UniProtKB/TrEMBL annotation, chain A:
PROSITE patterns: WD_REPEATS_2 (PS50082), WD_REPEATS_REGION (PS50294). Its main location: cytoplasm. Component of the eukaryotic translation initiation factor 3 (eIF-3) complex, which is required for several steps in the initiation of protein synthesis. The eIF-3 complex associates with the 40S ribosome and facilitates the recruitment of eIF-1, eIF-1A, eIF-2:GTP:methionyl-tRNAi and eIF-5 to form the 43S pre-initiation complex (43S PIC). The eIF-3 complex stimulates mRNA recruitment to the 43S PIC and scanning of the mRNA for AUG recognition. WD repeats lie at residues 6-47, 48-89, 184-225, 281-311. GO terms for biological process: formation of cytoplasmic translation initiation complex. This is Eukaryotic translation initiation factor 3 subunit I. Component of the eukaryotic translation initiation factor 3 (eIF-3) complex, which is composed of 13 subunits: EIF3A, EIF3B, EIF3C, EIF3D, EIF3E, EIF3F, EIF3G, EIF3H, EIF3I, EIF3J, EIF3K, EIF3L and EIF3M. It comes from the Eukaryota. Pfam families: EIF3I. Keywords: Cytoplasm, Initiation factor, Protein biosynthesis, Repeat, WD repeat. Belongs to the WD repeat STRAP family. The keyword Cytoplasm applies. It is found in: Cytoplasm.
Automatic annotation (TrEMBL), chain B:
This is Eukaryotic translation initiation factor 3 subunit G. It comes from Leptobrachium leishanense. PANTHER family: EUKARYOTIC TRANSLATION INITIATION FACTOR 3 SUBUNIT G (PTHR10352). Belongs to the eIF-3 subunit G family. RNA-binding component of the eukaryotic translation initiation factor 3 (eIF-3) complex, which is involved in protein synthesis of a specialized repertoire of mRNAs and, together with other initiation factors, stimulates binding of mRNA and methionyl-tRNAi to the 40S ribosome. The eIF-3 complex specifically targets and initiates translation of a subset of mRNAs involved in cell proliferation. This subunit can bind 18S rRNA. RNA-binding component of the eukaryotic translation initiation factor 3 (eIF-3) complex, which is required for several steps in the initiation of protein synthesis. The eIF-3 complex associates with the 40S ribosome and facilitates the recruitment of eIF-1, eIF-1A, eIF-2:GTP:methionyl-tRNAi and eIF-5 to form the 43S pre-initiation complex (43S PIC). The eIF-3 complex stimulates mRNA recruitment to the 43S PIC and scanning of the mRNA for AUG recognition.
Length: 325, 315
């Protein structure tokens, strides 16, 4: 395969995300622009400008009306997806680490860092109520006393939010009452990424403890574990096969002190049932920070510490491949 | 002579460049030239306007620009136009106007932000290869099958202390050995070493006995020096080994010639791969001599091994 190389960022990629249909690819990095690309040919549709710091997270609602991004400039911004116009600016006390739309696109969730004397909060805003945005007054703000949130996604039907914490804990917060419905600690270190399956019945976590794990979305029951030798920064579930792809590698701060050969910057494909690796794709010069499968399962993209995003369309080989057990 | 035709023929490197970049010679300067200007003025050179030709489903864009040497360069980019069927919403989104930093981009990918990378292949790992990897990772597993550990009592594949016949066979053999004046293990031992030290762990209950309390410990002034020299005498040097050689391979190769006391395989510090030579010390010099005769010139892993006596080290 010949990957399409997207050079829209000047710094390390922090997150990439496809929209629900898979025709658009949103990328954010440790620079202030939010880029959106056509996934089919890598053409850049535009940029959402406004942030003044590193952007940690991006999300788009299911019908592609709004784009939400959270940044280290202590703000969360809402953009019009089609025109790139900024619709709302939600200022926070500390950097916004995670954000997301619920499946209806009406309620947004974002979490802020424990930083500068401020606690870690998960905030919920209903976009149908303009006063909440104007007054910057979330209808619910859950303080998170323990370890800070490093990753979060909405659970099925917008009922709850799954959060991954710095100490490896997983919590299920109710989006209605704000209570912790369920909690689980399977990882021993920071959870870098959470991505749910297309049908939202399960989700995969990527952790600094060198593993990625699959959990049930409601019971948080641990299902599968994928082990590597390096911290895992991102993991994604294939929508059509029982495959997962893991990306990571040595931590960026250690890269210069060791040889590139042992960096293990490949994207690694594992079979879900047997938890075994069956394939690797090379390409990035640094650790992979974010991975995403195209919703049709025929391509995937990766964004790395090297600042590049690569769109890979699988060869026929991948579809023909049957692992031996 | 190369000097003669050097000027007339361009070198091969230039030819390649011409093929790829289509370097065109500078056009004659535009007509109004009042005085020859010493500095090259870019505005004097008229660049052709970019052309876009669509032929079937192939779009060709031809651009002209100047490189650092003020040579005109023609850049031809070829795109394939594909028509794809997509759902209505996706198709509608494809017609959205570009915005933000891409506002003034032409339709189609902008080469400043989108390029096609080099071909990469997915490396498939079959479970078979995976097994091999695991074996390499755990050399102990490999050793297990080779019966490296051999019980001195029953010759089984375990340590002497773990022998199931330790309490029955062991004492019996010991008695026999005492009667005959030599232990069973003595036969395999080279003449230079002391029988007591090796026998000690077997003695009595199989508990660990510190060397100072063993029978051999009473002997004073037994230094390692003479032994070491004896080793040197029975050491051979093997060269022209392949990179993938492991200690265990050498063990397999040389064990038939006699008991080996030490194998040293020179390895690269970072990669752990063999540097291509090794030293093998046998217990007996005769074994070493036979090994030289037997393995020298032996084809091993596509390479012909060279085996000779190791030169005694200088210090």
């Amino acid at each position: 395969m010949r990957p399409i190389l997207l050079q829209g960022h000047e710094r390390a990629i922090t997150q990439i995300k496809y929209n629900r249909d898979g025709d658009l690819l949103f990328t954010v990095a440790k620079d202030p622009v939010v880029n959106v690309w056509y996934s089919v040919n890598g053409e850049r549709l535009g940029t959402y400008n406004g942030h003044t710091g590193a952007v940690w997270c991006v999300d788009v609602d299911w019908d592609n009306r709004h784009v939400l991004s959270g940044s280290a400039d202590n703000s969360c911004r809402l953009f019009d997806c089609e025109t790139g116009k900024q619709l709302a600016l939600l200022e926070t006390n500390s950097a916004v680490r995670t954000c997301g739309f619920d499946f209806g696109g009406n309620i947004i969730m974002f979490s802020t860092d424990k930083q500068m004397g401020y606690q870690c909060f998960v905030s919920f805003i209903d976009l149908r109520d303009p006063t909440q945005i104007e007054d910057n007054e979330p209808y619910m703000k859950i303080p998170c006393n323990e370890s800070k949130i490093t990753s979060a996604v909405w659970g099925p039907l917008g009922e709850n939010v799954i959060t991954g914490h710095e100490n490896g804990e997983l919590n299920l917060y109710s989006a209605k009452s704000g209570e912790i419905v369920n909690t689980m600690k399977e990882h021993s270190k920071q959870i870098n990424d959470i991505q749910s399956s297309r049908d939202m019945t399960m989700f995969i976590t990527a952790s600094k403890d060198c593993t990625a794990k699959i959990f049930d979305t409601t019971s948080l029951e641990h299902q599968k574990t994928f082990r590597t030798e390096r911290p895992v920064n991102s993991a994604a579930l294939s929508p059509i096969y029982d495959h997962v792809v893991l990306g990571g590698g040595q931590e960026a701060m250690d890269v210069t002190t060791t040889s590139t050969r042992i960096g293990k910057f490949e994207a690694r494909f594992f079979h879900v049932a047997v938890e075994e690796e069956f394939g690797r794709v090379k390409g990035h010069f640094g650790p992979i920070n974010s991975l995403a499968f195209h919703p049709d399962g025929k391509s995937y993209s990766s964004g790395g510490e090297d600042g590049y995003v690569r769109i890979h369309y699988f060869d026929q080989q991948y579809f023909d491949f049957e692992p031996e057990f | 002579m190369p000097t003669g035709d050097y000027d007339s023929k361009p070198s091969w490197a230039d030819q390649v460049e011409e093929e790829t970049d289509d370097v065109e010679p500078l056009p004659p300067p535009p007509i109004p030239i009042p005085i020859p200007v010493p500095k090259v003025d870019h505005s004097n050179i008229v660049l052709d306007t970019p052309r876009e030709v669509i032929n079937g489903n192939i779009k060709t864009i031809t651009e002209y620009k100047l490189d650092e040497d003020d040579k005109k360069i023609k850049i031809i980019r070829t795109f394939k136009i594909e028509n794809r069927k997509a759902s209505k919403v996706v198709a509608r989104r494809k017609n959205w106007k570009k915005f933000g930093n891409s506002e003034y981009d032409q339709p189609g990918p902008n080469v400043a932000t989108t390029t096609v990378s080099d071909d990469v292949l997915m490396t498939f790992i079959t479970s078979k290869e995976d097994l091999n990897c695991q074996e390499e990772e755990d050399p102990m597993n490999k050793l297990k099958g080779q019966k490296i550990v051999s019980c001195r009592i029953c010759k089984g594949d375990h340590w002497t202390t773990r022998c199931p016949y330790k309490d029955t066979l062991g004492p019996m053999q010991k008695e026999l050995a005492d009667q005959l004046g030599l232990s069973t293990a003595d036969k395999e031992r080279p003449p230079g070493t002391e029988p007591e030290t090796a026998q000690a762990p077997v003695s009595k209950t199989g508990k660990y006995v510190p060397p100072s309390l063993r029978d051999g410990g009473r002997r004073q002034g037994e230094s390692m020096q003479p032994n070491r020299r004896a080793d040197d005498n029975a050491t051979i040097r093997v060269t022209n080994l392949s990179e993938d050689t492991r200690e265990t391979d050498l063990q397999e190769l040389f064990r038939p010639f006699g008991s080996i006391s030490r194998i040293y395989l020179a390895k690269d510090k970072t990669t752990g791969q063999s540097k291509g030579f090794a030293f093998i010390s046998f217990h007996r010099r005769e074994d070493a001599a036979r090994a030289i005769a037997g393995v020298s010139g032996f084809g091993y892993d596509h390479l012909i091994l060279n085996v000779e006596w190791a030169k005694p080290s200088t210090n």
